[in-house]
Design brief:
Layout (H helix, E strand, L loop, with lengths): L4 E5 L8 H11 L3 E7 L11 H10 L4 E6 L7 H7 L3 E5 L6 H10 L3 E6 L17 E5 L14 H15 L4 E5 L4 H10 L3 E4 L1 H4 L5 H14 L1
Parallel strand pairs: 1-2, 1-8, 2-3, 3-4, 4-5, 5-6, 6-7, 7-8
Helix pairs in contact: 1-8, 2-3, 5-6, 6-8
Length: about 220
Amino acid sequence: MNKVEISASILAADFTRLGAHMKEAEAAGVERFHVDVMDGRFVPNITFGPLMVEAARRCTKVPIEAHLMIVEPERYIADFAKAGADNIQVHQEICPHLHSVVQLIHQLGKKATVVLNPATPLSTLEDILGDVDQVLIMSVNPGFGGQTFIASALSKVAWLRQMIEERSLNCEIEIDGGIAPPVAGAAVKAGARVLVAGSAVFHGAEGVAEAVRRLRASAEEG
């Protein structure tokens, strides 16, 4: 995939008008929606469960990513798959049997993404990289939206892109955290092809359509 895709994080949407907000983003051209699932244990916040994915699925036809920031994600993967998630994302840091978890996601007919926190080295992907559809590099510490971008994530993305190309793998790179026009181009230049953005999509005073246009213009410069 050479085209840059935007995955709009509904964590930043207006929940009193979630369906309308998602439809605005879809009309503006976002290619995915990102659902941040947090349990208050793996990360210091509590957000959504499968019912939110199910609700989001009714609002859109574009792919939905379920980012599971939870302990024991393997217990809930089938629920998120049934709810309508197309891409299920699990953290390397919380899965002692990561291959089994990735295999389960694939058995359910979904794409599998492995997520790395900012302080987790790329070396932890050595034995799983060939089995996943995507790697998500966190450019903030997960748990809350609206955080400041951690610039060292760019070098991690660049090294990961080199690893993928050296092995001729069909694996995409997604980046999540503090993604806004000032850094979108740099993230793409480093090798990311999917940008997760919440505040930059839903909180702009200019409206969702213009916010997405500005984000994509910056990404394409990369």
